[in-house]
C-alpha cells in the first residue's frame, strides 16, 4: 500500500509535464510562423501571461514593503493594537488598515497624512481652553503663510499677520492698514483678456484678500463698512470702463476715505468734544482711546482748565500712558488702576468720555471690556455719558443686546480656569449722546439716530 501511494504522486507530475510538452510542440509551428507576419504583436495568451507576471511582481513588492515597514516601525502597530483592545475588540481591521497605509506612503514616496497633520495642528491652535458653550466666540490666530491663498497680495499678508499678533489692534489703525494694502492690490491688478474690472476684480482678486484677513482676525465694524462701500464703488463701473480709468478712480476713492472718514473725522470729533468741556469740569474716561486723548489735549490747547479721572483696565494698563501724556500737557489727573471704587469716582465727574469700537443699529455700543460698567455706574449717578466714535464704525445691519454675540476671546488670557473677552456691549439707555464728525459746537446725536446719519452721509462715497 505504501509503495503504491508513494508512486502515484511521483507519476502525476510526469504525466502533467508530458501533456504540457506535447501541447507546446503542437503549438510550436503556429508560434514560429507568427513572428514573420507581425513580430511586435503578442497573442492574447502572451498578453495574459505578461499581465499575470506583472501582477505577481507588484504583489511581491507590496509584501516586501509591508514586511520592511513592520520591522522598522513596530511601535505604531503596538499602539494600534492597544487602541483596538481598549475599544472592545474590533480592531483587527483597524490594525490592517494602519499597516496598509504605511507601505503606500513608502512606495509612492509621499509624506503620509500631511493634510491631516495640518488640520490637527490648526484645530489645536483654536481656543483649546474655551468652554463648549462659548465656542462660537472667535479669536485671532496666525495663519502660516504656506496656508494662505495663492492670490493673497504680500501687503495683505503683512497686515493679516500684524492683526493676528495685535500689532494692529485699534479699529481705525486696522482699517487704514487694510485700505493701504488694497491700494497695492489695485495698483498691481491687470484685467485678464476678455474680462472687465467690474466683473473680475471682486470675486477673483478682492475676495481672497478679505477671506485671509477674516481668518487672521474677525473684522471690525470699520473694515466691514469700508469693504461694502468699496464693492459698491466697483459695481458702479460700466463694463466698458477702461482699466486705467477704473483703477485711478478706485485709488482716488481709497484716498478720499482715508482723508475724510479717518483723518478729518478724527479731527472734527476731537474738536467737537473739546468744545463741550467747560472751565472747572472733571472728565472721567476709561482706558486709553485715541479720540478721547486727542479731545482732552485739544481742550487744553484751547486754554481750558479741567481735571481728568482715568480709570484703567486691570489687564491692559494702557491708561497709565494716557495719564502720563495728560500730565505732561499740564492737565491734573487722578489715576485709578482698576474699577475698584468706581461709584465715588463717577459721582465726582461732570462728564464721562468713552471711546467706542463700533455702534450697532439699535444704538448699543461695542467697546473694550469694562466700558459697560463705567457707563452704567455713570448713568445711575446721573452723569452724562458721551461716546466718541467715527461714523465709519457704525453698523447699519446688525443689532446686539449682549456681549457674547459679537466678540473676541483674548488669546493671551485664555487658561483652563478662565478666559477673557476683548469687548462688551453697552445698551443705548446708558448713553447720553454720540459725538461724530457730523456735529459741531459740542453737539451730539442720540445713539438710536445712527441709521439716519448713515443714510445722509454714505451715498456720496458710492456715487
Question: Can you characterise this structure?
Answer:
With 463 residues, this protein is α/β, with parallel strands linked by helices. The chain folds into 3 domains: 74 residues, no CATH class; 97 residues; 197 residues, Rossmann fold (3-Layer(aba) Sandwich). Helix content is 55%, strand content 10%. The protein is built from 16 helices and 11 strands. Strands 3-2-1-4-7-11 form a 6-stranded parallel sheet, with helices on both faces. It has a 3-stranded antiparallel sheet with strand order 5-6-10, with helices on one face. Helix 7 runs parallel beside helix 9 and helix 10 crosses helix 11. The termini are far apart. The N terminus is likely disordered. Belongs to the eIF-2B alpha/beta/delta subunits family. InterPro entries: IF-2B-related (IPR000649), IF_2B-like_C (IPR042529), NagB/RpiA_transferase-like (IPR037171). It comes from Remersonia thermophila. It holds the Pfam family IF-2B.
Amino acid at each position: 500500500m505504501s509503495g503504491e501511494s508513494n508512486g502515484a504522486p511521483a507519476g502525476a507530475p510526469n504525466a502533467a509535464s508530458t501533456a504540457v510538452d506535447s501541447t507546446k510542440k503542437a503549438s510550436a509551428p503556429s508560434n514560429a510562423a507568427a513572428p514573420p507576419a507581425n513580430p511586435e504583436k503578442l497573442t492574447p495568451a502572451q498578453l495574459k501571461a505578461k499581465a499575470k507576471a506583472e501582477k505577481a511582481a507588484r504583489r511581491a513588492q507590496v509584501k516586501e514593503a509591508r514586511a520592511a515597514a513592520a520591522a522598522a516601525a513596530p511601535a505604531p502597530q503596538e499602539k494600534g493594537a492597544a487602541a483596538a483592545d481598549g475599544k472592545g475588540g474590533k480592531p483587527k481591521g483597524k490594525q490592517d488598515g494602519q499597516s496598509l497605509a504605511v507601505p503606500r506612503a513608502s512606495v509612492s514616496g509621499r509624506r503620509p497624512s500631511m493634510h491631516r497633520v495640518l488640520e490637527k495642528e490648526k484645530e489645536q491652535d483654536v481656543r483649546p481652553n474655551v468652554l463648549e458653550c462659548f465656542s462660537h466666540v472667535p479669536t485671532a490666530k496666525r495663519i502660516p503663510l504656506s496656508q494662505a491663498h495663492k492670490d493673497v497680495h504680500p501687503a495683505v499678508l503683512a497686515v493679516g499677520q500684524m492683526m493676528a499678533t495685535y500689532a494692529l489692534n485699534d479699529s481705525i489703525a486696522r482699517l487704514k492698514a487694510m485700505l493701504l494694502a488694497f491700494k497695492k492690490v489695485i495698483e498691481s491688478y491687470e484685467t485678464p483678456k476678455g474680462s472687465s474690472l467690474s466683473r473680475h476684480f471682486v470675486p477673483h482678486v478682492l475676495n481672497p484678500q478679505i477671506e485671509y484677513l477674516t481668518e487672521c482676525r474677525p473684522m471690525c465694524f470699520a473694515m466691514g463698512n469700508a469693504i461694502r462701500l468699496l464693492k459698491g464703488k466697483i459695481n458702479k463701473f460700466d463694463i466698458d470702463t477702461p482699466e486705467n480709468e477704473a483703477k485711478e478712480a478706485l485709488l482716488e476713492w481709497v484716498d478720499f476715505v482715508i482723508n475724510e472718514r479717518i483723518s478729518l473725522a478724527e479731527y472734527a470729533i476731537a474738536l467737537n468734544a473739546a468744545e463741550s468741556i467747560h472751565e472747572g469740569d472733571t472728565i472721567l474716561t476709561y482706558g486709553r482711546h485715541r479720540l478721547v486723548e486727542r479731545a482732552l489735549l485739544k481742550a487744553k490747547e484751547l486754554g481750558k482748565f479741567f481735571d481728568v479721572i482715568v480709570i484703567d483696565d486691570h489687564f491692559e494698563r494702557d491708561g497709565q500712558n494716557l495719564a502720563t501724556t495728560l500730565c505732561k500737557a499740564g492737565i491734573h489727573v487722578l489715576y485709578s488702576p482698576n474699577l475698584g471704587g468706581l461709584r465715588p469716582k463717577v459721582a465726582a465727574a461732570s462728564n464721562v468720555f468713552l471711546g467706542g469700537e463700533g455702534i450697532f443699529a439699535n444704538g448699543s455700543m461695542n467697546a473694550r471690556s469694562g466700558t459697560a460698567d463705567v457707563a452704567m455706574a455713570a448713568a445711575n449717578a446721573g452723569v452724562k455719558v458721551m461716546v466718541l466714535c467715527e461714523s465709519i464704525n457704525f453698523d447699519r445691519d446688525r443689532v446686539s443686546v449682549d456681549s457674547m454675540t459679537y466678540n473676541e476671546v483674548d488669546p493671551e488670557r485664555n487658561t483652563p480656569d478662565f478666559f477673557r473677552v476683548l469687548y462688551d456691549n453697552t445698551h443705548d439707555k446708558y448713553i447720553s449722546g454720540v459725538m461724530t464728525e457730523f456735529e459741531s459746537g459740542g453737539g451730539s446725536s442720540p445713539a438710536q439716530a445712527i441709521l439716519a446719519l448713515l443714510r445722509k452721509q454714505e451715498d456720496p462715497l458710492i456715487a
